[in-house]
Design a protein that fits this description.
The protein is built from ten helices and ten strands. With 339 residues, it is α+β, with helices and mostly antiparallel strands. It has a five-stranded mixed β-sheet, covered by helices on one side. A hairpin with a 6-residue loop joins β1 and β2. α5 crosses α6. The longest helix has 19 residues. About 3% of the residues have low confidence.
Length: 339
């Protein structure tokens, strides 16, 4: 159809018709930040309520005992369970528990976070919300923690081929100013010890899983645990994947010769790393090795949901955050140990 339109338009003097990218279409835009920013606290609270208790038509129930018989207190925006004396708010027991900012700010933060195809930096979010950098940093990492928990135990059990690949992050060694003093930064003795490998497993038309290891060969037990034996796996020429031939139908591609040859390629895995690299370079500029796994999981989630509208992604992230318990790492006041 597109080829026919191209020929017709060329014959009458028009340029070539190109299929529109999804992100440029109207279907990708179902959420407006201005609408969220104009919400009152009551409207924001009602939105959180509909998302958190969507399995009950938006009607609250006790998060402790599951009792449906609850009453709303007249003095505070909380409910009390009639089955047990537990009092709870719309964020009680979630990753946003013990919040200090207006509830609308959390909805706006989720909307801004969802809109960034390559992520959104904490510094930029702090300007958007007019809050401290530390507040924005913790808020975005809470969202990444909820996203990571959603994919933590996923297995790639589908029949479609899988792709695996690894990429190194961190441990940059700055070259010396004078060329005579420069060393071979690839040598093991010149490494800082901070370099890590993000390994991605991606099922074609399926899920994307990522995890952080010291070197590619360390990922072999994880791959065998997440991918059924006998599956078809596409990988590059790295020697770390040689041991997988004993358990899987391997298709290897040597990137020094071709990117795709004889049906073997890792293009979907490379697409994931392109998004992760652009997030690191263009948005965050530096990703701490301590949090690399969270950023990698975020980009895996964005890859899997890139064909959803921004409104659908916003609802999905809000649902993950409101179904996630108290944060394991981001509770209380700002704390950061030396690395």
């Amino acid at each position: 159809m597109i080829k026919t339109l191209n020929l017709m338009m060329q014959s009458i003097g028009f340029g070539v018709f190109v299929a529109q990218h999804f992100l440029l279409s109207a279907a990708a835009r179902t959420l407006s930040l201005s609408v969220v920013a104009r919400m009152s606290d009551e409207e924001a609270r009602a939105t959180f309520q509909r998302i958190r208790w969507s399995d009950n038509g938006g009607e609250p129930y006790c998060p402790r005992c599951g009792c449906l018989d609850v009453r709303k207190l007249a003095t505070r925006p909380v409910w009390q369970c009639k089955g047990c004396p537990h009092q709870f708010s719309v964020t009680s027991g979630t990753i946003f528990a013990d919040r200090k900012r207006p509830i609308r700010d959390y909805l706006l933060a989720i909307a801004i976070f969802a809109d960034g195809a390559k992520g959104h930096s904490a510094l930029q979010l702090s300007r958007d919300l007019n809050c401290q950098y530390k507040t924005a940093f913790v808020m975005t990492h809470k969202l990444r923690e909820a996203i990571e928990a959603e994919v933590r135990n996923v297995r790639l059990d589908g029949d479609a081929p899988k792709e695996i690949d690894g990429a190194y992050f961190g441990g940059h060694v700055k070259p010396k100013n004078v060329s005579a003093e420069r060393v071979d930064r690839r040598a093991a003795e010149e490494q800082t010890g901070k370099r890590q490998v993000v390994v991605v497993m991606r099922e074609r038309k399926g899920r994307t899983l990522s995890f952080v290891v010291g070197k590619e060969s360390d990922a072999l037990p994880i791959i065998r645990n997440r991918v059924p034996l006998g599956s078809t796996i596409h990988a590059d020429e790295a020697r770390g994947w040689d041991a997988l031939h004993a358990h899987y139908d391997m298709k290897r591609i040597n990137h020094s010769i071709a990117y795709s040859q004889d049906g073997a390629n890792t293009n979907q895995a490379e697409s994931y790393f392109a998004r992760l690299r652009r997030a690191e370079i263009g948005q965050h500029h530096r990703v701490s090795g301590r949090y690399l796994g969270r950023y990698a999981s975020e980009m895996a989630w964005r890859e899997d949901n890139r064909r959803l509208s921004n409104g659908a992604q916003y609802s999905a992230i809000a649902g993950l955050a409101l179904s996630h318990p108290h944060s394991r790492d981001w509770r209380g006041y700002w704390q950061r140990s030396a690395q």
